[in-house]
Specification:
This protein is of the alpha/beta class and 229 residues long. It has nine helices and eight strands. The radius of gyration is 20 Å and the shape is globular. It binds zinc ion (ZN).
Length: 229
């Protein structure tokens, strides 16, 4: 067999291996395949602690106007009296994840059993409204520094948890203006081309609503695709 032909076969085989490997890397990254621009920049907008009567509908209005989807990590205690808002999140194509039922750290982090109980109580409401349980979870306060037994309690139930690597800082900056939140949203990403942005849709987060259009326009103008978990 001629040597050029052998070299060509070897090169083609190497290309095939690289394509398969790269493809599996893309899927492995959060187990989602990005809709539009697989190799490009991506941002996940995430909203925690809602729904609220005053802020969540306004967030949904902005998302609809800008035609982007987001992920809502909900608090069951708030959602059980606001099922219509939760239903709207679902109907408008956003992803709903479990955040907590009570959001009381002392109770939910007391043991793996109490953590699981809290998750299930929240997920029951999600099932009632959307027809299925969510397999997506965000630890209140993030998973950072939590003991393995609590992390394992979540993953062993087949749930996937998501932290964040960028923040509007709307939970820390008391009385922040929308300009401050916008600045934080574009300056805090730890990974430039893979942004998971933390924001909140509780009743006091009107500045988050005011900042949201500018945040979305900024990332659109910098060629980010918007994705959900
Ligand atoms: Zn929270």
């Amino acid at each position: 067999m001629n040597r050029n032909f052998t070299a060509l076969c070897a090169a083609l085989l190497m290309c095939a291996i690289l394509i398969v490997f790269y493809g599996s890397m893309l899927v492995a990254k959060n187990n989602v395949v990005l809709a539009d621009d697989r190799a490009g920049k991506v941002i996940y907008l995430t909203f925690d602690d809602g729904p609220s009567d005053r802020v969540t509908p306004k967030i949904l209005d902005v998302l609809k106007k800008e035609n982007v989807k987001a992920t809502f990590f909900i608090v069951g205690k708030s959602a059980e009296t606001r099922k219509r808002i939760l239903k709207r999140e679902f109907d408008e194509g956003h992803t709903i994840g479990v955040h907590s039922y009570s959001h009381r750290y002392k109770d939910i982090y007391a043991s793996p059993a109490s953590l699981v109980e809290d998750i299930e109580k929240c997920n029951k409401i999600i099932k009632e409204v959307t027809g299925s349980y969510s397999t997506l979870y965000r630890f209140p306060g993030g998973s950072f520094g939590l003991p393995d037994k609590l992390i394992n309690a979540v993953t062993q139930r087949g749930m996937r948890y998501v932290d964040w690597n960028a923040s509007t800082r709307d939970a820390e900056l008391y009385g922040a203006t929308s300009a401050q939140l916008f600045k934080a949203a574009i300056e805090t990403p730890i990974v430039a081309d893979y942004v998971v942005l933390l924001a909140h849709d509780t009743t006091d987060k009107l500045s988050t609503v005011d900042a949201l259009t500018d945040i979305i326009k900024y990332y659109k103008s910098h060629d980010y695709a918007f994705a959900t978990f």
